[in-house]
């Protein structure tokens, strides 16, 4: 595979305290009580964020990838750089005046993950941090987590849109992923409908989660679903709920939409052929094969669930790697779901990663999927 990919955007250090596995919790206040000492196993420390999770997964899947993220000149930044050097990837930027982003990931058995996050140097990442020469050599630009990168969502997302417009002008295909938003943060107060309206005409593959998208485009529904408690995606009718959001995205100019819906599966839709033909030419996509598709992909049964950290990012890496190999939309989404099921078996994003060929063999052998609504 000789098509080069740029994985740009958010990067951080993930610190995951490992809770003893012999007990499952149903409420967080059963565990986190003021003054209580909680006996833990050793912590897992890994790189996180879209650049590390999706970028390194692409690297391990055989893709020629350049990573473009920003860290500070501090101890966490040195740890991130050392980890990436072990993978022999380049492109990391150092902000001498910034701090390195970090997340403390609370993966409590039986409870969805909680993230304590500092965006750090990601807030200063801008359009100009992706140089012209890199775009000249790329077939695909994948950008992740603009909600955690202040300059990329400020002023209606002009920096993000400018980066994607530059890439498209050179024939580079573009891919965009989101991140969860703290409603009380600056990102939570941003007008995401305006931001998406500005960037999606320059976006070929849009791969957000349902929760992220619903927060940005249908806040009343998001609030209703959140008020019911539990896993929001467990309450969905994918074709109705995810389909409505996908239609809005298509109306904004997106070409291919893949919505991650957690345990409920994945929903995908593609535009008609005249629009699909606008996808970056360097990708060499078979437009007739990708035009006018819609479907639901159930989740595959995971062998064991340790943590969902990075599972969405890794699933997108498998999706994009399959796109680069010229596979059909259905095959790409199927492999994305399969890689996600493998990823949750590890505490970090990459520990459960499997080659696409291995995933295909297991699917052909009858790998069971969960029921979808």
Describe the protein in words.
This protein is an alpha/beta fold and 373 residues long. It has a single domain, classed as Ribokinase (UDP-N-acetylmuramoyl-L-alanine:D-glutamate ligase). The protein is built from 15 helices and 14 strands. The strands form three sheets. Strands 4-1-9-10-11-12-13-14 form an eight-stranded mixed β-sheet, with helices on both faces. A hairpin with a 7-residue loop joins strand 7 and strand 8. The longest helix is centred in the middle third of the chain and has 15 residues. It is globular, with a radius of gyration of 19 Å. The relative contact order is 0.13.
Summarize, please:
The protein is α/β, with parallel strands linked by helices and 373 residues long. It has one domain: Ribokinase (UDP-N-acetylmuramoyl-L-alanine:D-glutamate ligase, 3-Layer(aba) Sandwich), CATH 3.40.1190.
* CATH fold-level assignment: UDP-N-acetylmuramoyl-L-alanine:D-glutamate ligase
What structural category characterises the helix and strand content? Answer: alpha/beta
Number of strands: 14
Total discrete domains: 1
Q: What share of the residues lie within helices?
A: 25-40%
Compute the average pLDDT.
92
Strand content: 15-25%
Form type: globular
Detail the poorly predicted runs.
Answer: none
Distance between the termini: 37 Å
Rg for CA atoms = 19 Å
């Amino acid at each position: 595979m000789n098509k080069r990919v740029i994985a740009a955007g958010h990067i951080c250090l993930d610190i995951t305290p490992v809770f003893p596995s012999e007990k499952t919790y149903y409420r967080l206040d059963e565990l986190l009580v003021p003054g209580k000492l909680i006996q833990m196993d050793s912590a897992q420390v890994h790189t996180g964020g879209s650049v590390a999770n999706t970028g390194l997964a692409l690297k391990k899947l055989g893709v020629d990838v350049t990573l473009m993220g920003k860290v500070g000149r501090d101890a966490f930044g040195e740890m991130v750089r050392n980890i990436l050097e072990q993978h022999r990837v380049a492109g990391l930027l150092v902000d001498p005046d910034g701090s390195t982003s970090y997340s403390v990931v609370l993966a409590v058995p039986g409870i969805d993950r909680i993230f304590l996050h500092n965006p750090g140097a990601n807030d200063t990442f801008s359009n100009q941090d992706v140089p012209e020469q890199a775009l000249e050599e790329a077939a695909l630009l994948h950008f992740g987590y603009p909600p955690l990168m202040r300059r990329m969502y400020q002023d209606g997302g002009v920096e993000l849109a400018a980066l994607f417009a530059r890439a498209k002008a050179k024939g580079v295909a573009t891919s965009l992923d989101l991140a969860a938003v703290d409603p009380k943060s600056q990102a939570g107060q941003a007008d995401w409908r305006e931001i998406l309206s500005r960037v999606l005409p320059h976006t070929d593959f849009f791969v957000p989660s349902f929760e992220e998208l619903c927060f940005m485009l249908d806040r009343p529904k998001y609030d209703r679903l959140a008020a019911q408690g539990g896993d929001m995606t467990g309450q969905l009718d994918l074709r109705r709920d995810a389909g409505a959001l996908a239609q809005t995205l298509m109306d904004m100019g997106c070409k291919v939409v893949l919505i991650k819906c957690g345990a409920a599966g994945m929903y995908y839709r593609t535009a008609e052929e005249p629009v699909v033909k606008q996808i970056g030419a360097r990708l060499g996509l078979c437009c007739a094969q990708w035009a006018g598709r819609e479907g639901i992909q159930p989740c595959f049964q995971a062998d064991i669930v340790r943590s969902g950290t990075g599972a969405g990012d890794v699933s997108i890496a498998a999706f994009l790697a399959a796109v680069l190999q010229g596979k059909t939309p259905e095959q790409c989404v199927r492999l994305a779901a399969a890689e996600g099921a493998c990823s949750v078996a590890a505490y970090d994003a990459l520990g459960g990663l499997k080659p696409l060929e291995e995933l295909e063999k297991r699917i052909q052998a009858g790998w069971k999927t969960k029921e979808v609504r």
